[in-house]
Amino acid sequence: MLVARALFLLLAMSAAWVAQAADEDWMPVADQVIEQLDTALTSYQAGDAKAARREVIQAYFGPFEGEKMEAAIRSHLGIEPAFLLERQFGAIRKDIKSGAPEKEVALAVNELKQALKDHAEQLNEAGVPRSVYEVNQ
Q: Signal peptide span per the entry (predicted)?
């Protein structure tokens, strides 16, 4: 009985640690942004520029800003990387609005996706916890 309790306690502590570690990982946030950027690119390739622009805006204001990835980058990696990411989002919106060739938009989206992954890795390597940016702490 004592062994079963000890095992249960160890399992519960492990589950809590795994849940906390997942809350500290920035890659899921980057993945959310990337998913929306992929949706935007698909919309653009289907000829729906209006939806594509809306989805790029949602990627920026949704998970990128809403999950505080931009704030973490600005605070821990510097103003310049945050500014460059913001410019990349803006450039994609402008490319879509101007009717740029699909290849050009796809290249810009892929560059932004890679930058998001790189910055998420840098935040993780620096040990920047997502919980620092939670509202109502």
A: 1-21
**pTM of the entire predicted model:** 0.80
Rounded CA separation 43/20 (Å): 35
Answer whether 36's CB lies under 8 Å from 118's CB: no
Q: Using a CB cutoff of 8 Å and minimum separation of 24, what contacts does 30-34 make? A: 30/69, 30/116, 30/117, 30/119, 30/120, 32/62, 32/63, 32/67, 33/59, 33/60, 33/62, 33/63, 33/64, 33/69, 33/116, 34/113, 34/116, 34/117
DSSP-assigned letter for residue 125: H
Q: Per-domain residue ranges for the chain?
A: 26-129
Q: Token pair for residue 13? A: 């502590």
pLDDT tens for residues 64-108? 999 999 999 999 999 999 999 999 999 999 999 999 999 999 999
Question: Which helix (DSSP H) or strand (DSSP E) does residue 77 occupy?
Answer: none
